[in-house]
Every structure is written in structure tokens, then in C-alpha cells.
Design a protein that fits this description.
By secondary structure, this protein is mainly alpha-helical. It has one domain. The chain contains four helices and no strands. The chain starts with a helix and ends in a 5-residue tail after the last helix.
């Protein structure tokens, strides 16, 4: 989770916008971990590797499992 948040934060300047990830969480410890992601600095090589792994053609499958999808847009 922290790497994903750090990656999103780093993408903002690339597009000239502020990106503010708002991950859901159930526990305070998870919230603290998410906030700590702002202190993670990804270098150019790490960003490139993540960008290559996260191209739209490499992402497959549903966003949520069936149970969670049944609760979306209720």
C-alpha cells in the first residue's frame, strides 16, 4: 500500500497536478502507514519499473471481488 501511495504522489508533478490519494482504512495503524507513504521517495529507476508494471494492458481482472462489488453504488 505505501509504495502505491508513494507512486501516486510522485505522478502528480509529471502531469502538473496535485494527486491526493484517499485510501480507505479500518484501523489507526493502517492510517499511520498510509500517511508515512508521503515520506517515501521513489527514484527514477523505481518509478520506471512501477510504470512498466502498471500499464493498462498489464492490468486484468475485476477491481473488487463479487461480494464487494455487490455493495458498490448502493
Amino acid at each position: 500500500g505505501q509504495i502505491a501511495i508513494a507512486w501516486l504522489l510522485a505522478k502528480g508533478p509529471e502531469f502538473g497536478i496535485d494527486i491526493v490519494p484517499i485510501p480507505g482504512t479500518k484501523r489507526r495503524t493502517y492510517l499511520e502507514e498510509n500517511v508515512a507513504a508521503a515520506d517515501i521517495g521513489l527514484d527514477a529507476t523505481e518509478m520506471l519499473l512501477l510504470d512498466m508494471a502498471l500499464t493498462p494492458d498489464r492490468i486484468s481482472g475485476p477491481r473488487y471481488n463479487e461480494r464487494t462489488m455487490s455493495m458498490v453504488d448502493r
